[in-house]
Amino acid sequence: YFINKMKEKGETYDFILLDAYSGTLSVPSELLTQEFFQGVREISSGTIAMNLILDSAGQSNFYRKLSNTLNASFDNIYLSKVNRQNNNHFDNFVVLNRWIEGYTHVQTTE
Asked: 91 has which bridge partners?
């Protein structure tokens, strides 16, 4: 809703932070589509950042599908581990569409 309204108004933002969770580890699926990210890109004139909890090794189906969707939606994607969660399988990451020192480029996976 918000993205469509801003596109209608022709408004853009220098910095957009996506941080939406329903439950402990779940981002609503409608906020993880290529269509959603395309809308975000259209209202962005700068940096887009996402707070995500991902598997530490980057081997899960969710990680692979999300990295492919992000790479299809943006020119480049970078991520950095922010802090370790209380278990051995997941960590908190920040994902950006712009390079910052210390961030790792995310490649499309198969």
From this structure: 54, 84
Using a 10 angstrom Cβ sphere, with 0-12 exposed, 13-18 middle and 19 or more buried, the burial of residue 57 is exposed
State how far the Cα of 46 lies from the Cα of 14, in Å rounded to an integer. 4
Distance CA 49, CA 59 (A): 22
Q: How far is CA 100 from the centre of its chain?
A: 15
DSSP the chain: -HHHHHHHHT--EEEEEE---SSSS---GGGSSHHHHHHHHHTEEEEEEEEEEEETTS-SHHHHHHHHHHHHHSS--EEEEEEE-SSSSEEEEEEESS--TT-EEPPP--
> What digits encode the pLDDT tens for the residues 30-40?
888 999 999 99
Higher-confidence residue of 27 and 13: namely 13
Residue with tokens 């598997």: 55
The amino acid sitting at 67 is S
pTM of structure: 0.80
